[in-house]
């Protein structure tokens, strides 16, 4: 079994890795695990058919030949039958007119009859008692309305007859580990067994991904193309892979996530199982979202929200097929990182520079070595070598390959290093091997001495060749290389996943949140005052407000507030208070307050003679501090979300906001605040004290919970501004907008 | 000859391309071309040695075997002699004790004797009349001070004896087109002839780059590794490549640019020759800059300034070896683009989505098709296909490959499309070819019908294989593929270069600027007032200011200014005017102005009894408008630079500034302003009118020229703020800082 990351056996042995992680989860999280949702569908039997009927098989059709060839190519371990109108043998498989005629039990029907004959064929399979069906035929929902109708009939039939259905327009699946397949996915031969489970909505793309994997020497446990997803969806296959003991990484290509809740559920299950999910999802750009919508006909949602969900649920999102493969491979080889720092060792100064540049761009931390590390390196390196990280141990290794053995363990012991990267040219041809052989072997010996996980990275992406495979085996390493740019991004993904996993295992987001409907309080605050009072009940600090019913009461409230006050008429009948003279700001002193009360009362009575006046609200005027904008909204696909930004001009001009799906944890909010371009302001600015991030994060998380508690009819809850000054956080204004304004 | 981009013969024929471009340059720019600098060094003879002496050749050394093997591998066309202490034959080459003993004229000595014997060997070569030498031996400047001393001796000797010297620590060069080489650069065989000239400071990296090129089927004209650059530098080789008729693209790997002016000169020469420069330069991150400095010992300069130089001089900067190869290849295949829009055609909706996402991220414009294009597409596409760009012509092409021929020319004719991209799976193996053959041939026929340049892009990066090479030849295409992410970045680089070239050919930056010393006026403004007056003389609008020598004069000036005024004491002896009561702001009305004059005079006389007071400056107070920060600085490596940002909090918190090397054109300034995150503010904001970008850009360019006119002792000139409101631009404050404050 081969892969692009060269791995030291002892620390990363797959069995160790799995054993440790499972044990740990069972011990620590046995109670909370119960709150994570169960899979919606059990696909264990579906992905293990011991016999398959090829419905539509015919010697005359090139298409049919292609399908049949796949069963031989994959070395299918079960029995195959041909079903066609003539009942004749095809491709060496015995022929029957109907599935019902097959004299043995059939686990799986693989249908590729013309679209118009599909319903009849599915009925025949159902009548034969076949419970698992894949429809390869296209021409259904992807072609428009009439195709969608036909697809609905297939689904209704499958549901009525208890059939588990993949497709239509699906290339099937290959359970590579078990050689149990029902597929026409073209995969390069020979098959490489591996621990990556791959699922894709697109058949063309899954073929291309598996081609890249083969080229790079990366193996698969299972590969599936879900097609139109009439019944089995991406998330169902992901759920299967979480439970599949042969799969360590879940690799996904998606055009649209049909069931956002199922997606979040499977993400939490994957975290509990310590299996990373790596996803390539198109639709980042507006154009691409249009294409996806045209292509699949399903809703897409705001891509920023999908990004947010990935961040919150520990899903590693990548940008290309090449990155999908490199990242999945790294994650399948290297256990969760205990520290986020990377120690890099190379014999090329240029390589060190390129790696450091990519690392800085991707947020991978190459921390300076500790004094102890540098002292230890000085003892083993040539005089003219530097002791920086990345470490250039220079061309001296060509004369003294043992430098790998003396330097790598030193780097691995550094207090900040969670991953050792050996960066080097790797031999692809026998000619290249001659000059590099001793070095590769010494790298292997050096990495074997490390107690921290280590990977070997080639300077550039290169395919797996026989030469490299052989020397890697001899060196006790496995793999070839993705090159610097892809590997650095893969490491960034690994760090992100490891950190999310650590937070999850420390208790964050363990419990599946209640649905909005369950959480709803039934309340419907409308006026600014009602909104602020509701927030206060939800433990969000709001600016104090007193309703004065006389000038004297106003004076007394203003005195207790101290300093300047804001005064606003309280009346459910008045929408625009300022316009009718119902607002006075910055009022100070007993006389001025009393006068303001009288002025407001007189003006409003004159301008709105019919309004019922309930008094005048007196609040302290705030100055200083940092103003934030906090607002919730409803994504048409992903549901309620929350946005945070710095108030005023920042939000207006820079659109400098961070978004997350609700509910959010205080940890999520800290991530959001840290991701703002103007985050520096929160560290204190022009005399304003630094914001207390813990208090602020907790408050914003509560605002999110408050929005959920207002139920599914809430369109948005907006706090603008939320004022923060040191550990004092206060909502100054609040607004609710309701989906159905009449309710 | 092969490459990764499949190219249509008629519009992009290399000969056409070169012929047209040369003709055009000669016709249009014959006068201004003379202002561009000439190469510093003529390397034509250096890169064409008809005979080479291998000094240090020995059968006993594995190292020597490696060197000698390269001459055979490259199929060296000249004579080779072995020189060693014993004067014995080596590797089949006749042996001599001294270069002087060789009975024929020798063009080139390739030295790889031990470091301590190098000076003697160089002397021997010089005595033999050899004029071109490459020193492979390492252990010179790269190892520290004593090595640097030895290197200086080599250089002195070479200069004294008229020797052109590459190295030390240089792997030499291979003139692949002419098979005239003197090298130990390991290049994979068989050699692929091409039009890319590759030069690198690092030998390890150049080997890796050429490995990737070979793997992807990309050919080279020349490859050189300049090593320690005692004499021949990167820019010298680049200069050679500008004039080399066999080279179309200049591809560079650099750790540091030793001569910034030579770099800018060769960049302009390359623009005049219509040859793109593609560069991978390490040192983006702080860590990487440290590594480069440790590695090469040479100054690095601010990476942002290098980025700016690339933007200004049309140099395409890339981030990885993979991108260097893909971008160079695309630029060698596709002539300057006449429009920046890209039309994409694919049979994979997923592929369209991935391409569109990458394009949006890299700023590649995929503009919607025009109505005419969409109408024409409707006539040839299946009903269920969309007419969006990227265009998914669906799997229907498997039944009807002629769809390529009907759709591609339609897309190519679209009014916004400057480049047609065919995105598809490409066959790497005979098995894959079976399913794709008809499609590849039809793509070739379709692209041949297009009048706009077209490239074929594979979904993922894949190496060149025999299968792909053969079918591409049959289809009338050449090449394999770099995959979506690299190709999109390559297209972005091509668009950037094409636009810079168009501006250059329209007359921008045609003349080489005068040096700072030549430009210097000899003036040394120091006080705010002197600086503003100097700027006014340089045609930069500045706020009016009058020196009042009495309260009455102050009143009269204030009246003529109208509205509020600012009043400041004028005295060369007072640095901090506010602290001594020398400033009054927002003064309005005759009495107040007179009083302010008296107050300033009294306070300053009291606080600074010895200061000579020259009067009080009266200026109008400005309000409204947008405040910009404009400042020049001196990069230790690249020389004078200019930074522009929005004033105050934007610069302070966001560090939202743009930087360019001086001099700047108004076009440069517009790029700078457009690149600010807060650029939107310049379009008008909260009642402030939109800035007139032409006037603003011209003013800022003049500020840059003013800084240059102050000569090389100016450390910085700062205008803060430069106020802009509509077409009114005015410097409100100015400050000069001088390198040598005593002058």
Automatic annotation (TrEMBL), chains A, B:
Residues spanning the membrane: none
Pfam families referenced in this protein's UniProt entry, alphabetically: ATP-grasp_5, CoA_binding_2, Succ_CoA_lig
Domain CoA-binding intervals: 46-140
SUPFAM superfamilies reported for this sequence: Glutathione synthetase ATP-binding domain-like, NAD(P)-binding Rossmann-fold domains, Succinyl-CoA synthetase domains
Signal peptide as annotated in the record: none
Top-level lineage group: Bacteria
MF-aspect GO terms: ATP binding
Membership in a protein family: In the N-terminal section; belongs to the acetate CoA ligase alpha subunit family.
PANTHER family: COA BINDING DOMAIN CONTAINING PROTEIN (PTHR42793), PEPTIDYL-LYSINE N-ACETYLTRANSFERASE PATZ (PTHR42793:SF1)
Name recorded for this polypeptide: CoA-binding protein
Annotated organism of origin: Paraburkholderia dinghuensis
